[in-house]
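Hi C.,

You asked whether I'd gotten around to modeling the 352-residue construct. I have! Everything is below, sequence then structure, no commentary in between.
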Amino acid sequence: MTRRVALALLVLWFMQAMLWPASPASSPTTAVAIGTQDAETGGMQYANWYFGQDNLTSVSVAIQINRDPLTDDGLYFQSYNGYINGHQFYFGLQTRVGKPGYALTGKGLILSEFGTVDSSNMRVAPGGWYEVGSGEGLFISTRFGYAWKAGNYVLAIKYQETDATGDWYAFWIMDTSANVQTYAGALRFATPSSQSKKGIGDGGGSWTELYYREVQDSVLPEWSISIVEVSAVSRDGNTLHPNTAYLRNADNFYHIDQVFHSDSNHLDFLIGGSSTKSFTAKSVTLTPYPAPSIPDTTPPTITVAPGIDGSVVSAATLRLTGKATDNVGVGQVYVGFNKVDMGADGSFASTV
């Protein structure tokens, strides 16, 4: 078996492990695997997110890359790996993105769908490229070179539009430090036979993978990513956050760990360096996020005493009376540049 085929089979096995984790309800924290060695390649850390409903139209993962790995090894942070319309997909960022005819290139973004080789289901971003696989499993994938570094990003998969064949979902990344959003390509997912499978499924996960070693038997590259917030949009347009998460560290890696901060819901993925695995698997409950504030779009109104509003008055002074109202509340009223006192009902009077 060639190394390429072996690696592909490993990737497929780890994807399967990610998509069908043990039930969080019946899986308490388990003992850490014995041993201090790290595998050459494979999936390392997994976090499955549970919103409590399916048929999602978008999923966004806000991250902070605390350390740029600066390595020639192949590292992959998969933002959300799950199903759209019943078809398996994943998307995220890599240290070395594969490109047909060039092998591994530099840093970039990847969005893949499995179970198809139909290239008409892809929209490649300007400057990007694509790959179609068949010998090692059916897949289509859009790729895009992107020089990510230490900093803050939001990676999102979003419903785009529907045509006669299926639904298009696009991959966007936002560099929140620079306030720059970049389009990384889109894929079409065939219309499902059942409406229960339509959209993005619940229970998908974020995970890391070491898929290539530049130097065999070398130490793990040091990398740290914090997942700051995971959110989704329901088909009704409501913003959702996961209620629980199921965390798992791979048995065949030792110098890795996850740290969940219950006060902020932040999750740290730690790889290499002084990191050592503190648990194998556990479930965590996220602190409820505050309800989103509803913007006040109704402007306040002011009425003045009859006979004055719109009138032309020739006098040294004028007594102005009126009333200010608002659906939320009136903070203050100015006549000219002068603040005036108001009654409890919003009434006011001023000499100008």
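If it helps when you're writing up: Confidence is low (pLDDT under 50) at residues 1-16, 22-34.

Thanks,
B.
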